[in-house]
Amino acid sequence: MTASPPESHSADSLRPRIRGTMNGRAMLVDFVLLKLYIRSDLKALIIQILGVVNTPALDLRPTARQPIDFAPAAVPRRARLWCNRKRHGSNTDPLLQLSEVNSVSELDSATWNRLAGDSPFLRHEFLSALEQTGCVGAGTAWQPNHLLAFDDNRALLGALPLYIKNDSRGEFVFDWGWAHAYEQAGLAYYPKLVCAVPFTPVTGQRLLIAADASFGATASALLVAARALGERIGASSLHVLFPTDSEQRFMSEAGLHRRKGYQFHWTNQNYDSFEAFLESFTSAKRKKVRRERRRIAEAGVRFEHLRGDELSDSDWDAVFEFYSRTFLRRGRPPYLNRAFFAQVCRTMPENLVVILARYGADPIAAAICFRSGEALFGRYWGSLADFHSLHFEACYYQGIDYCISQGLQRFEPGTQGEHKISRGFVPTPTWSSHWLSDSQFDGALRELLQREQLHVDAYMHELASHLPYRQSDDRPHQI
Predict the structure, then answer these.
(1) Interval 358-408: pLDDT, tens
(2) For the domain 72-255, what is the CATH superfamily, name and number?
(3) 401 phi and psi angles, rounded to 5 deg
């Protein structure tokens, strides 16, 4: 089903309709379809964007992949093939040496963590736990192939946490339609290269560059090295998931195509209590939240905020059972195993926060979170009990309480969930950057993502109109 192209992309023509209240999941206008109509000579690709446009057929006859002129001993000068470094780097190129490792364990933790910043997910302890406990690596769809940039004294200047992928699970930036289009064209979409933290849709640095290194030169060298690796192994594409805003702008200039998404985040406006936070709501929304919290309190459910090493082994066994049940209900095994949680409890307990719900002495539900110096990240949830509003309390209200008490500035409770809006979480942009080795597909993707962003922008503005904050509250809640 297609629609005639509108004469102009007005706000009204792009505004999605949200049925009724925000209680049910509001659905975006059918997002975007990439569909191939293939004849025997593979001539035609038609990008169909429902409700927006029909585009003319593009010539998609496969072309031979062009090798990249890439020499590891002189990467920065070759980097100019893919990135205009005049705006980002110095005029003098340092001599960079590029190498690959199949595990961060091949580097000592202090060396890696010097690049990782404050993010718990980029720390050597987190990434090595994924590798050493078998969550990624042999037998999984995530094969580590991290890229490193050294100076001539073997000092680490930059790194790209990179994985060779043979499916698209655990990424949270969905490209199944792209894979299907490749398949219909008789091309292989897998393997592909993914720069990301496995199973973790959290914005953070992806181009890990030392503070004393040239960002432009080092980042360009790593991107060219990733592209050369892709050519060598026959990868279809490179995907950088959840980079920072400045990184995605840098990569856009380097020739990657940006893709916009959204999540729902809470920002601490220097609240001294949860009630002070609620005072910024309209009366009706404030009463709703209080009612939900009162139901849990009156049911006798109590909560503890625990560091990773403050739970007993039996408590951790229960928490892992809750977490596993959430996945098994959806017919798939959990991403992380019990050994992973045991290891991060030993190696980075200060970054692991478990919001544990008890009924009497028994644990009945848990929200597993990680924290940095300024933010709390809700990652996983599970329960054995069925109390009204238990999910909202454990995953949202307790996290806000924790942030206020700890002085954290931001709470990111995870992906999806328009129901978060009425509880004070604001639509917030997320980004990813993409490059396809087939030039015809890459050009089609650029156009696709530009039009997809029209929908995302319109949807985010529509969602913002449902925020619970008073109009007289001039603090920066709106997107």
Answers:
(1) 999 999 999 999 999 999 999 999 999 899 999 999 999 999 999 999 999
(2) Gcn5-related N-acetyltransferase (GNAT) (3.40.630.30)
(3) -55, -45
